[in-house]
């Protein structure tokens, strides 16, 4: 696994990504490209368009002029940012995968239409590369620019199961000038930079957009058998003052922590934001905080172990 895959998938549907247009989706829908999870497959499941695939598949190109062209799909990143790597997954496409592909990126602010995106200035971040069938292909990207959209080009046609666009979130926080915001939100540029344990699920899940639909969409640790407690460290979207903490244990019925505490960090200094406080299972908890000290990081300690669906830390940037 490439090291960049530990970064958020900026294109993921559950993080707000969308496949806004494609040249063709005759056999399998373009929206599958950015679905969460591994692609599935069940042999001999035929519909009106042929074998059912969990991916995007185009028709066979035919051009009497001898220049068949290529297919493409436009993806709006749910979280704009700096792209560190791309994964093109042809899982289950064995006789119908594209022999090669390339990826371009663009930065288009606002809410552009597909036509406006096609007319935008695109930068090649992955040159034309060969693909294999039923395989994950990892490509590092060395571009420091911030992008809002990507375009997957397949040459000339075929099927791709998933497109992953891993990178560092770079939001436009000027929208919140004079307003409060969730300083711990992944969408606002926060990250979980360290945690004690991620046996069952990734700690970044705790700061993902939206509500967790089930316990796997939160953060859950293994059962602790020794002394101590589990914890995670959140780098905030920016230095700020936190006024309200939300600790959500929704869906965690028998594996919620017994209690939680919050500690703010600012350089070498520490401040207790929330003393050790009892939690209930399957419950969203909200706590007003009365420590106006600005911090850059927050350590969330859970006692002794368990899981959290979401952590929200509302406040103001300094």
From TrEMBL:
<feature type="domain" description="Allantoicase">
    <location>
        <begin position="16"/>
        <end position="169"/>
    </location>
</feature>
<comment type="similarity">
    <text>Belongs to the allantoicase family.</text>
</comment>
<dbReference type="InterPro" id="IPR008979">
    <property type="entry name" value="Galactose-bd-like_sf"/>
</dbReference>
<dbReference type="GO" id="GO:0004037">
    <property type="term" value="F:allantoicase activity"/>
</dbReference>
<dbReference type="GO" id="GO:0000256">
    <property type="term" value="P:allantoin catabolic process"/>
</dbReference>
<dbReference type="GO" id="GO:0006144">
    <property type="term" value="P:purine nucleobase metabolic process"/>
</dbReference>
<keyword id="KW-0659">Purine metabolism</keyword>
<dbReference type="Pfam" id="PF03561">
    <property type="entry name" value="Allantoicase"/>
</dbReference>
<dbReference type="InterPro" id="IPR005164">
    <property type="entry name" value="Allantoicase"/>
</dbReference>
<keyword id="KW-0378">Hydrolase</keyword>
<protein>
    <recommendedName>
        <fullName>Probable allantoicase</fullName>
        <ecNumber>3.5.3.4</ecNumber>
    </recommendedName>
</protein>
<comment type="pathway">
    <text>Nitrogen metabolism; (S)-allantoin degradation; (S)-ureidoglycolate from allantoate (aminidohydrolase route): step 1/1.</text>
</comment>
<dbReference type="InterPro" id="IPR015908">
    <property type="entry name" value="Allantoicase_dom"/>
</dbReference>
<feature type="domain" description="Allantoicase">
    <location>
        <begin position="189"/>
        <end position="317"/>
    </location>
</feature>
């Amino acid at each position: 696994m490439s090291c960049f895959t530990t970064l958020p998938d900026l294109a993921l549907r559950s993080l707000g990504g969308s496949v806004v247009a494609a040249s063709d989706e005759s056999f399998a829908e373009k929206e599958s490209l950015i679905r969460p999870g591994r692609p599935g497959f069940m042999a001999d499941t035929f519909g009106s368009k042929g074998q059912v695939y969990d991916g995007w598949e185009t028709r066979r190109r035919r051009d009497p002029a001898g220049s068949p062209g290529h297919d493409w799909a436009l993806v709006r990143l749910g979280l704009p940012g700096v792209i560190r790597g791309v994964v093109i997954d042809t899982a289950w496409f064995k006789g119908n995968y594209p022999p090669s592909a390339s990826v371009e990126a663009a930065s288009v602010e606002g809410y552009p239409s597909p036509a406006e995106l096609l007319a935008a200035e695109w930068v090649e971040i992955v040159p034309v590369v060969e693909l294999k069938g039923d395989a994950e292909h990892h490509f590092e990207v060395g571009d420091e620019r911030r992008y809002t959209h990507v375009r997957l080009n397949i040459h000339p046609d075929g099927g791709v199961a998933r497109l992953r666009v891993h990178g560092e979130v770079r939001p436009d926080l000027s929208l919140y000038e004079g307003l409060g915001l969730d300083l711990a939100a992944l969408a606002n540029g926060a990250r979980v930079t360290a945690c004690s344990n991620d046996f069952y699920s990734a700690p970044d899940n705790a700061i993902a957009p939206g509500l967790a639909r089930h316990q796997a969409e939160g953060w859950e640790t293994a059962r602790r058998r020794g002394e101590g407690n589990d914890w995670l460290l959140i780098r905030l979207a920016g230095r700020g003052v936190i006024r309200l903490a939300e600790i959500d244990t929704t869906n965690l019925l028998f594996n919620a922590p017994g209690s939680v505490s919050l500690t703010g960090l600012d350089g070498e200094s520490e401040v207790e934001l929330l003393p050790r406080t009892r939690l209930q299972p399957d419950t969203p908890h909200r706590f007003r905080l009365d420590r106006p000290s600005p911090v850059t990081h927050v350590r969330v300690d859970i006692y002794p172990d368990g899981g959290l669906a979401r952590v929200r830390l509302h406040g103001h940037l300094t």
